[in-house]
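[audit] Reproducing an earlier prediction to check determinism. Same input, same settings, fresh worker. If the tokens differ from the archived copy the diff job will pick it up downstream; this log only records the rerun itself.
[audit] input (264 residues):
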Amino acid sequence: MTRCLVLVVLVPIVFGCNAIQSARPGARTLSETFAPPTPAEAAEMALDTENADNRFRGTMLLANAPWGGEEIYLRMYEDYADDENPNVRAAAIRALGNHGDPSHVELIVPSLQHDDPLVRLEATQALQRLHNPIAIEPLLARLDPDIEGDVDIRADAAHALGQYASRVVVQRLIAAIDDRSLSVNHNALLSLRTLTGEDFGLNRARWQVWLTSSRTPFAGQTAYIYPVFYRDKRWIEYIPFFPPPPNEEPRSPVGMPEIGSENM
């Protein structure tokens, strides 16, 4: 009894008032109180046509859930990929990136030009997880500082391009070494290493000389691995009824062919 009382007191201290507000009505135990919504509850929120905030929350829950790739959910994400509410649209794009396949790239690409930077960011990150060459030119546009002013989007575009063995891609990544943002420089270099197996650091001139003289620039290509979420457990997550962090396993994009089969 004392232990339960301590936990009840600690939860709002650790998680704040939002923890109380998000507690599930009618819960009979502490684990039920703070358990995530069930699939049915998440779907019900996602289908709320009268409340965009509920659609966003429900879609985001499904997007991040391991069971969110069911066919019925995929059809909903496709419908929401051009939703007029930018938050709903961003959540749907994340869901397609997490659960979709290369055919969904066609639905994601238009959001790279959306006015809302969150939508563009989610689209860029989704394209790290799905492989389809139709994304190359749109991603190159997001890498251009004259077109894309958001540093995080340019950096994510530089990373996403590391899966496409194309001379044009390598040329543009070499140019991105001179981007005014260190994060863009860093990701451009990572992608160049992945695509070529070479490493000339942030020396743009040496990269350019090498590319000009190389007949087989992708001979040393290695597997592209997209960025994943990972963090260590917090102390509260060692308590049995608290779920662990939603860590992901590193992997290559869905639809990416074997190395060497798509070199251009």
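[audit] rerun output stored. Observation attached for the diff report: The longest helix spans residues 182-196.
[audit] end
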